[in-house]
Automatic annotation (TrEMBL):
Keywords (A to Z) from UniProt: Hydrolase
Transmembrane segments: none
MF-aspect GO terms: hydrolase activity
Protein name (database record): Alpha/beta fold hydrolase
Presence of the UniProt keyword Hydrolase in the record: yes
Length: 297
């Protein structure tokens, strides 16, 4: 069963919930071909926090669906004993099925980029085109130490969530510090400091750091499977990203058969917010192209 909360193009009006024990909250706006937007991780994150500002531009031509991924926003908290990317990809399919969307374009930011890759690898028939924005976990940095600065500051905040530590983390997210207004900081602090606001993120990154220290990978690593992706793929990065450094674009750019790269100068990890107009223009141009023929590919 799906419930809605109103009409219009704001947070409440676009909100819907798939009811049940593993409830999923998401936003839907617009009409046309399907476009799935998958947010990243971090304290106080949600689908709306990452992509709410982009809905007016994208919903003019697409049926846009923006889930709160499991563990984030108003969606259920999953069991981390099951691989998270599988859980999140299956949750995204539930939302698409509920909205009657069979084959969609997918935009994934950071963790959402990893989920997008999981989705296209395991369910290639459901994805037409792929946009990965500073995707996390699909290729390790070649030069930068792991975990990267942005991830270290995120983990530091989750273990001791103070406003000062939140500001330190947010400063590592952007290329131009003027973007971090007090209003933006206060909004994220309200979400992150709400009861239970950091519990899942803390547990998620504790598990991720433990896996990184062990060096163990379940099955074939994602970077070794990128050559399986046949969908046209746009890689977008901020030149000054301190979470997923620009160098991490090199392997997917080479491995994905039909890939191209766009770099936003003076930009960090939040290109969809920090360079909103340019990001929307680049993504819409890419999604609006004619499909390549098999001869061209």
């Amino acid at each position: 069963m799906t419930t809605t909360t109103g009409s219009g193009l704001d947070r409440d009006a676009t909100g819907r919930t798939l009811e049940g024990p593993e409830h999923l909250h998401y936003h839907r706006a617009g009409e046309g071909p399907g476009l799935l937007l998958l947010h990243g991780s971090g304290p106080g994150v949600s689908g709306w926090a990452n992509f709410g500002a982009n809905l007016p531009a994208f919903s003019r031509d697409f049926t846009v669906v923006v889930p709160d991924q499991p563990g984030f926003g108003a969606s259920h908290r999953p069991d981390l004993s099951t691989p998270y990317l599988r859980t999140a990809a299956e949750a995204a399919l539930r939302v698409l099925d509920a909205e009657g969307l069979d084959r969609v374009d997918v935009v994934g930011n950071s963790l959402g980029g990893s989920v997008a890759v999981e989705l296209v690898l395991e369910h290639p028939d459901r994805v037409r085109r792929l946009v990965l924005m500073g995707p996390g976990g699909i290729a390790p940095p070649l030069l930068a130490p792991q975990p990267t600065e942005g991830i270290r500051l995120l983990v530091r905040f989750c273990e001791d969530p103070t406003r000062e530590r939140l500001v330190d983390w947010m400063r590592a997210m952007v290329g131009d510090q003027r973007f971090l207004t007090e209003e933006r900081i206060d909004e994220r602090w309200r979400a992150a400091s709400a009861p239970g606001g950091t519990d899942f993120v803390r547990d998620f990154y504790r598990a991720a750091m433990a896996a990184m220290r062990s060096g163990r990978v379940r099955g074939v690593p994602v970077w070794a499977r990128l050559g399986e992706i046949r969908q046209p793929t746009l890689l977008t990065y901020g030149r000054d990203d301190r979470v997923t450094p620009l160098e991490t674009a090199l392997h997917p750019l080479r491995a994905i058969r039909d890939a191209e790269l766009h770099v936003f100068g003076g930009c960090g990890h939040w290109a969809m917010l920090e360079r909103q107009v340019e990001f929307e223009r680049v993504v819409l141009e890419f999604l609006g192209r004619e499909a390549p023929t098999e001869e061209m590919r």
